[in-house]
Each structure stands twice: as structure tokens, then as C-alpha cells.
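Review form for a predicted model. The reviewer records the input and the model, then writes brief findings.
Reviewer: anonymous (R2)
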Amino acid sequence: MSAHPDEDEFAPTTTPGYKIGAAKSVEEYANLDAEDESLARWKASLGILPGAAAAPASGPQVTVISLELASDTLPGGKTLMMNVQDPAAIAALKKNPFTIKEGVEYNVRVTFKVNHGICSGVRYMQVVKRSGIKVDKMEQMLGSYGVHPKGEAYVKNFEPEESPSGMLARSGTYNVRSRVLDDDGHVYADWEWSFKLAKEWE
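Model under review:
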């Protein structure tokens, strides 16, 4: 990915006075407050079980698999999906933008996999520009995760939104930079794509 001078646009929202705790290993989390039943249930939901050995750490901690746009108005119940793991497909989307129907409700979903350890405060961010001017910024918290107990990917659905409408909205192409990162500032994915608005889906 190319370097960008506008890194400040991706500064995550922070709560004044909140300090991120020191990172802990899976074993440390497993033994932390072992007598607390509600905490034990939360840890189990992250795949942290007492006495469980951590999988050897190799490769990226989090792999972002895909970003999808879903809408009941899309023909045939399809979704618009980008494979984040395919650089050629992402490059093609920047040159040949998605077409999104104006004035419809849609929601975004991210599919990702935790490969090892515990990641806290994972979030999705995107900055949308048209003609080089920022027109929108989205920040969605995905949450904290450990390796899925069944080794599967996680799917996070965002709250529904409505696409802009009107002649002004339909003029030009919107350029998007997307990023998935965590509370510690680790960036797991960073990619660019484009979309345009039209009267109908294409």
C-alpha cells in the first residue's frame, strides 16, 4: 500500500482518561480472576479456556477476508463483495467502481479471522472523498476477539445506513480508503476502492 500524508484522518476516537491496559498472553487471560463466573463466560466466548495452551504465533494476528455491502433492494438477494485478500481484485475496484443505487438502505459487513492471541478494540474505519475532498468518515467498533473455538471466521454486521440521493450525489466517483486496526494501533488491513451512485443497481 502507498504511504499517505493524511494519517490524521484515521486517528481512532478515544475516550478522555481511558488508558489501554498492557497486552496479556492467552494463558494470563485464562488465569485472570478465575473465580468470576461472568468473566469466565466472556473469556469462553473468546475461546479462552482455563489450562488451554496458546497456539503458536505465526503470521498476522488478524486476517481481514472480505467487506460486503448488503441490501434488500439488490437483485437476486446478492451482495457487493470485495475480497480484501486479492490485491488484483482490489485494484480493479479502484478503476471500475461499484455502482450503488441512490436512496436505499444497506448495511456493511466485515468477515475476518483471528489467527492467534487476543486482539482488543478491533475497529473498521473508512474515509470517503470526492474530488479530493472528504465527504464522510465511518468508524465502527468490531470488538475484542480471540481465536474462534471452531477455527472459523467472524462476521460483523454494521447498523443499516441509507445511500445518498439526488443529482449532486450522483455526480462523480467516490474514493474510499478502508482500514481495520485495534486499540494498540496494529493495522490489519488497509486498502482503497471506489463507488459511484446511480438511479439503479448495475
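Findings: The beta strands are 62-70, 79-83, 98-101, 105-114, 119-130, 133-145, 154-157, 161-162, 174-181, 187-198.
Further findings: The chain has a mean pLDDT of 83.
Recommendation: see findings above.
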